[in-house]
């Protein structure tokens, strides 16, 4: 009886193939493990740039960065024993930026703690712990001064923002960056390191703003308070915080003892300008002509859906859209809508017959003005509890409220503001021009606290559709006191833009801890409607179609209905496989080659089986 055996030559080849199949993955796996081990050994999660910020008599914030993502917390040392760990305010996920706040402290008291980074304990240089002493209580606290803005280039909430004065003898104030890339900080918390006294920030005081996302990545701005922030404390859009590579984002801030920061000068743009630059009109911004080329795809028929007969030349403003918001003891803001993009500003004064002062749109520069649909004019540096008259200049027209002038009254000055609290969110569905203002007021629901509703506060929506408002600035409608709201009250949001929206309502409870999204309907309030086209019944996957008609209806300013019907022809846009000859050729080759390949494989196996039987 003969026994079938594998030939020696084939056996060697089989052994080589099996060795390669098993050996190569094992070698790759081992190499990967070694590389990861070397990486972990070379990059330790050691805290650097440890900062004490938001310093108060009863709390302070500790922040630091690590070269690699790691968990971060602090362990308070109480009577020589470890206390309960305090985790990052954003949760226990691994990050490169770390931010922990310790509360419920005593004034003028020393506190010690260690930093726990990836389960490793770290202290100040040469010591096992960090230590910090809270300041003493001062007799008077400054009025809240909230500022806010946004940062681009921050992922997964892994970012922090610091603000300090150019004088480094100051404990900086700080905030983490939210999911939407926004931040808010109260400048009234700035204190001197030397004696713990408060610092009051005024219009011409120089500030530095630093965003940090890693030891070598961040953004940096410096300038006066008036240059950086608008009248509502929002960082001006012309000065964005765009994260990029930077030698050391901390070099402009005071750094606590015990940290080992890199001391170098960041190569970043500054807002500083000399007197000669601001006075020389030849340095004014001049538009640069650019030549851009576009590729127009004509696979489908193009139709003009942007104009409707009778509406193209409609101009002027919607006088019912004029609103006065952000009333405070030192100013107010005027907003309105215009039917076309046009320049807008107001002239104001304390007498109807003497409107000698002028206020421009917040987005306008000193030497350049732009045209808008949505106009937002802040008026600042006014006297408390006083009436001001104004008229609106929009495009080529002047609007005087039928000759009576518009009237706005500043609120009286109040003391002891409530704790700082802000609300942030996003507006979805803004028209392509990107212009919108969000307005908020609080409505009493449970008849507890302040009754009725609060005065309107507002903010421009930024280029990324984000916004921030300080709810703690809300006053009663007469402005005589801060609005005292409860968790049951309703916080209402309206959006002013060229598309309409219903009032968005949120419950006041925990509103500062969540992002608010306001959705627009998409219906124009300026006379031209836009709406979404529903899903088609057939998208022509194989190239055939059933035909479809599009209809657009709009209402002009005179109340007359304009109806225009757009017909798409007899075919749905060709998006199918059979619409392109290349796709047809590829599909044909696949259909022919696949069966032939299967047949060859089958015959090869059959021949091998026959040879084995013959050997037996």
The main sheet comes to:
6 strands, antiparallel
Fraction of helical residues: 10-25%
Mean pLDDT across the residues is 76
Contiguous runs where pLDDT drops below 50 for at least 5 residues: 255-314, 528-533, 541-572
The tally of strands reads 36
* Principal-axes shape call: globular
Helix/sheet category: mainly beta
Kindly, what is the distance between the CA atoms of the first and last residues, rounded to a whole number of angstroms?
9 Å
Radius of gyration: 33 Å
What does this protein look like?
This protein has 616 residues and is mainly β. Helix content is 13%, strand content 32%. The chain contains 4 helices and 36 strands. Strands 3, 4, 5, 7, 8 and 9 form a 6-stranded antiparallel beta sheet that branches. About 16% of the residues have low confidence.
């Amino acid at each position: 009886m003969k026994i079938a055996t594998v030939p020696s030559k084939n056996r060697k080849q089989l052994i080589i193939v099996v060795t390669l199949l098993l050996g190569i993955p094992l070698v790759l796996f081992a190499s990967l493990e070694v590389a990861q081990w070397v990486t972990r050994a070379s990059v330790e999660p050691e805290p650097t740039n440890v900062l004490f910020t938001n310093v108060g008599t009863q709390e302070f914030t500790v922040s630091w960065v690590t070269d690699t993502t790691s968990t971060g917390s602090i362990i308070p040392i109480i009577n020589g024993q470890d206390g309960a760990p305090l985790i990052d305010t954003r949760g226990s996920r691994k990050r490169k930026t770390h931010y922990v706040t310790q509360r419920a402290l005593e004034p003028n008291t020393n506190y010690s703690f260690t930093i726990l980074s990836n389960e490793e304990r770290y202290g100040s240089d040469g010591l096992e712990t960090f230590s910090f002493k809270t300041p003493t209580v001062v007799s008077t606290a400054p009025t809240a001064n909230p500022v806010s803005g946004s940062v681009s280039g921050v992922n997964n909430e892994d970012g922090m923002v610091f603000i300090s004065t150019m004088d480094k003898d100051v404990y900086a104030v700080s905030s983490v960056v939210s999911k939407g890339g926004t931040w808010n900080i109260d400048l009234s918390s700035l204190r001197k390191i030397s004696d713990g006294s408060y610092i009051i920030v005024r219009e011409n005081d120089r500030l530095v703003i630093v965003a940090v996302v890693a030891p070598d990545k961040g953004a940096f701005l410096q300038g006066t308070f008036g240059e950086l922030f608008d009248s509502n404390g929002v960082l001006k859009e012309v000065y964005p915080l765009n994260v990029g590579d930077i030698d050391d984002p901390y070099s402009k801030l005071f750094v606590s003892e015990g940290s080992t920061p890199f001391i170098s000068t960041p190569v970043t743009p500054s807002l500083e300008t000399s007197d000669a630059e601001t006075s020389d009109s030849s340095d004014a911004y001049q538009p640069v002509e650019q030549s851009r080329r576009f590729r127009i795809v004509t696979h489908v028929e193009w139709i003009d859906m942007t104009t409707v007969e009778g509406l193209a030349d409609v101009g002027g403003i919607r006088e019912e859209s004029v609103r006065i918001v952000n009333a405070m003891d030192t100013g107010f803001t005027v907003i309105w809508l215009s039917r076309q993009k046009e320049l807008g500003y107001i002239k104001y004064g304390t007498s109807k017959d003497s409107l000698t002062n002028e206020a421009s749109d917040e987005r306008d520069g000193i030497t350049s003005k732009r045209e808008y649909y949505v106009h937002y004019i802040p008026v600042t540096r006014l006297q408390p509890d006083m009436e001001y008259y104004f008229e609106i200049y929009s495009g080529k027209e002047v609007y005087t409220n039928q000759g009576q002038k518009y009237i706005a009254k500043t609120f009286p000055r109040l003391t002891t503001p409530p704790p700082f609290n802000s609300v942030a969110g996003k507006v979805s569905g803004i028209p392509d021009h990107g212009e919108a203002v969000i307005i908020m007021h609080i409505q009493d629901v449970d008849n507890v606290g302040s009754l009725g509703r609060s005065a309107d506060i507002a903010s421009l929506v930024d280029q990324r559709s984000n916004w921030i408002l300080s709810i703690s600035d809300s006053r009663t409608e007469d402005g005589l006191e801060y609005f005292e709201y409860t968790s049951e009250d309703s916080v209402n949001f309206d959006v002013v833009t060229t598309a309409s929206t219903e009032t968005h309502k949120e419950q006041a409870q925990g509103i500062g801890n969540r992002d608010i999204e306001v959705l627009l309907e998409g219906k124009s309030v300026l006379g031209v409607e836009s709406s979404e086209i529903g899903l088609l019944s057939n998208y022509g996957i194989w190239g055939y179609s059933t035909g479809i008609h599009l209809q657009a209806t709009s209402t002009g300013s005179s109340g007359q209905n304009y109806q225009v019907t757009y017909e798409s022809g007899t075919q749905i846009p060709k998006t199918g496989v059979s619409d392109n000859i290349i796709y047809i050729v590829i599909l044909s080759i696949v259909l022919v080659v696949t069966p032939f390949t299967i047949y060859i494989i089958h015959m090869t196996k059959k021949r091998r089986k026959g040879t084995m039987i013959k050997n037996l």
